[in-house]
Write a structure and sequence with these properties.
heterodimer, A: mainly alpha, globular, B: about 0% strand
Chain lengths: ~280, ~160
Amino acid sequence: MTDPHPHHLPLHAGVGPTGWITAVAALVAAVAYVLASTRLRHRGDTWPACRDTSFVGGCGAVAVLGPLPGGSFTAHMAHHLVLAMVAPVLVVCARPLTLVLRALPPGRARRTLLSVAHSKAATVLTFPPLVTLFDIGGLWLLYRTGLFATTHHQPLVHAAVHFHVLAAGLLFTFTVCQLDPVRHRWSLAWRGSALVAAGAAHAVLAKALYATPPPHTTFTPADVQTGAQLMYYGGDAVEVALAVVIAIQWYTATGRARARAQRREPASLINSTTPVP
Amino acid sequence: MTDPVGSTAPRPQVEPGRSLAACAVIGAALAAAIDEIVFHQVLGWHHFLDRSTPAVGLLSDGLLHTAELLGLVAGFVRYADLRRRHAVAGAHARAGLFLGAGAFQLFDGVIDHKLLRVHEIRYGVDLLPYDLAWNAAALALLATGATLTARARAERAHT
């Protein structure tokens, strides 16, 4: 691929090893997931095949994008959109923690993982406002300070940003969806508000980028505007996907709670609205 | 999931208030979606960003935009919940759609376009007829919604 804007440094000039490490790690995770789910099915457990597809798709996207060179701002934005938003949704919806806990034989490894999932630290680390700050704050730092320009010629900074984008995206999606077993279940109100706040900040940042490109960069205005619009509408699509995950959870949980109430008091409660879990 | 509504089960109770509210949220989100698709994308009248927009306008625009997206999902799931309980009041639901759409249109026309100056309806033209048509459409939607609500209420009072 030829760089359409040769007047600035290729974005991923120094990404070499980081990109490849990410790619290999993603592929290893995908293989491990498929091995674990196969083991479960051999044992007679049910584990929907769509989860395998989702996880492998998410890891595949990270693996393909990791070592790919980016040139324009639009290409960079497409890259980040997949890395920080699309791939995490695919990975988190596959419930990797649940799978690992079920596939591991009882023993030290399983006990350790369970104690980590049930630790105070995990509760704090999945506190919705904190996770939102971690994700969106990083994004604002990247695009509104000189950090983005620095990543062009500092391979280590670039690697750190790369890692932060993926990790923060995974943590945010994990927290908002809350599909895997952690001890503290944050309520729908906390998670929904985090989604609204993150969505709004993402939209505002996209419009701010449309008006003013990241400091000390030399992308063409047309390129930056296309990239900013991609960020805006791409973010919309992923936010809707996250909202659908939460909505399905609410629908299922209310249905179950109502069925329970009905079994207890079959005559009176058929229309009661149960509180949101 | 289906509720076992057999002959022994009590007759499901219709919930007019919740039907109206769920559909009002859907109506507002649909009006926002039409605004985005028709005026931003198809006609290209609205601009993605008006450079004279103040910061507070940008912020409220971002919040409202996200709320619309999530509202669409939330409205539909609330409606689906009412449906599985056989609690949808059809007339109230239709009234809610119009009320929601009208409220969004009026908010967009007065607060977004005029007070916060997020963007204009169209650029390089005399705005007055556009603004009048925009807000008249909003009032027409609201009036339709109000009429339908009144009629739905009267009908319920009758039965």
